[in-house]
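Milestone M4 deliverable, item 7.
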Amino acid sequence: MTDRHALIQPDRGQKAVPLHLVDKTTFPDWLKGLNGGQRAAIAAQKFEGGGFETAIVPDGDDWFAVGGVADAGALSGWCLAKLAEVLPGGTYRLAKGDAGKAMHGWLTAQYRFDRYRKDPKPNDPRILLTQDVKAIEPALAEAAAVMMVRDLVNTPAEDMGPAQLEAEARALAKAHHATVHVVSGDALERDYPMIHAVGRAASRHHAPRLIELEWGDARHPRVAIVGKGVCFDSGGLDLKPSSGMALMKKDMGGAAHALALTGLVMQAGLKVRLHLLVPAVENAVSGNAMRPGDILRTRQGMSVEVTNTDAEGRLVLGDALVRASEEEPELVIDFATLTGAARVALGPDLPAMFARSDATAEGLLRAGIERDDPCWRLPLHDGYREYLKSDVADILNSHANGFAGASVAGLFLDRFVGEGLDWAHFDTFAWRPVGKPGRPKGGEALGLRAAWGLLQARFG
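Output delivered:
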């Protein structure tokens, strides 16, 4: 796609097409200020001021555009998204006020994933001018992070395996002078047995590993970000049906979120000691695949009975969360495409969020609303811990009764997070099944900007 830095520019009086924003309430009075020909042009385009409606209006030898929004007095992140999708390439400015957080939708609406197209469709840039110069770089950074998630999730598993996730981490480290440590092979089997068990059936090309990145001043508060990196999930020997496997390239969506959030933290120079952990595996099927009934060792020392090989994400996260906890961070945030139960409960748009601390949960909810990246808190209900009891091991990985699947998965992870640590868990979908303005069908960042807002508020 077009270099994002070209899409938002300081307003220095350049020639630009005006953009008018109206809502159902303000539209009638706004319309009165137009001449007859302009009103006829708007009527011909069936523009009535509704959300995401657009029209192009002649104005002598020039023209202007109008967009319908929910509330013209309080712009959301998506108010300019439809305009950015449908307007011709050129330079634009708002006729009244400034874009504010609506810059995000202007940027993300111009995202394209065309890596595999022989002849990518040209994308003439739509440039937005703003007088709020200080807001440009933060808006560009957040949009770039969202687009990074989209790119990683949209890339098929053959080209986005554990080695490629490692390469993404190394590229981030090189750009921001961080260090990367990767554990694989015999060392992985010895020190992170659950990660190894899940990934051992994959080919050598997609061999499992734990990727760690560290950055920042050791004197600053330590923050751990953990992302589930299951680059493809066949379900293992508890094989998924083909319909369930179709989107499993996105099962590394948690890792994509974690990598993108890490990039935001480092680019902003947040005063934290950052620790990124990505357990990267492919849950494949072969003669040495993990079996139902196997009992796994863990880095923590507990034993886990595998009752479902398709509940593998919580296994790899468990070992990674133990490693994160060993450094006693002030905050741990993990992202995972973990359960179908979360999608049944909340649908594709809302990531389920779990937190030990009410203050942390409230901070995430608030930041999500402020950034039009809402999440929804679900409970870590102590009464459901009994669902994880095993007859032969310390804990089992998947309960049989079907109740509260997202919460029980969260309680499984909770067993691997250090006692007393502030921990938040996002069960995100990382995918948009139906496109919306600024949010095309495909890989999507859901919960990323909420987490970023919390980190900024707490450590900025």
